[in-house]
Amino acid sequence: YCGRMMILVIMLSYTGILRPAGRKALCVFCNVESCMCWQQFEVVKGNFSRTFLHVGYHKIAEIPAGACNISIQETKKSQNYLALLSQRGVSIINGNWLINRPGIYAALGTYLTYRRPNEIRSRNGESITAPGPLTEDLHVYLIYQQPFPTVQYEYSMPLNQYLAPEPGTPSAVLPLGE
């Protein structure tokens, strides 16, 4: 024992995952590598489930501007489709009865990854994910064609805009007291 105390400062990233002090990552909030804007956030979760609906578009959720870590998932494979529209009503994915191919779509300041399993044996439903942050509200719809749809969604909302550490705040293992 050398008479010194050691303190380990640990930072949690926007995902809540432990991040070593020296590891670089691209921040989804400010797009800067190894930034110090570590956000406090609230995780919002929702579930849309109905027995029967009229064939057509049905609003599931409205995801607000600023949201990150967006995940929209059909719980099982079906003949229904997920659809996204901007706050202004512009189709992003599967709008106006035109079904888009799975892929990556740039919209609302982020990249949205649209997946639609096409294997006959697959039990997974459609999914849409995006790192965010959104530059405007995102409207999520279900194109209903088959009974018993269930869609789960989740996103993170920053509680404060940017939380920068106080100047001189330690970010590694440092000895206390000499």
TrEMBL record:
<dbReference type="GO" id="GO:0006508">
    <property type="term" value="P:proteolysis"/>
</dbReference>
<dbReference type="GO" id="GO:0005576">
    <property type="term" value="C:extracellular region"/>
</dbReference>
<dbReference type="GO" id="GO:0030198">
    <property type="term" value="P:extracellular matrix organization"/>
</dbReference>
<feature type="signal peptide">
    <location>
        <begin position="1"/>
        <end position="20"/>
    </location>
</feature>
<dbReference type="InterPro" id="IPR010294">
    <property type="entry name" value="ADAMTS_spacer1"/>
</dbReference>
<protein>
    <recommendedName>
        <fullName>ADAMTS/ADAMTS-like Spacer 1 domain-containing protein</fullName>
    </recommendedName>
</protein>
<dbReference type="GO" id="GO:0004222">
    <property type="term" value="F:metalloendopeptidase activity"/>
</dbReference>
<dbReference type="InterPro" id="IPR050439">
    <property type="entry name" value="ADAMTS_ADAMTS-like"/>
</dbReference>
<keyword id="KW-0732">Signal</keyword>
<feature type="domain" description="ADAMTS/ADAMTS-like Spacer 1">
    <location>
        <begin position="44"/>
        <end position="158"/>
    </location>
</feature>
<dbReference type="GO" id="GO:0031012">
    <property type="term" value="C:extracellular matrix"/>
</dbReference>
<dbReference type="Pfam" id="PF05986">
    <property type="entry name" value="ADAMTS_spacer1"/>
</dbReference>
<keyword id="KW-0964">Secreted</keyword>
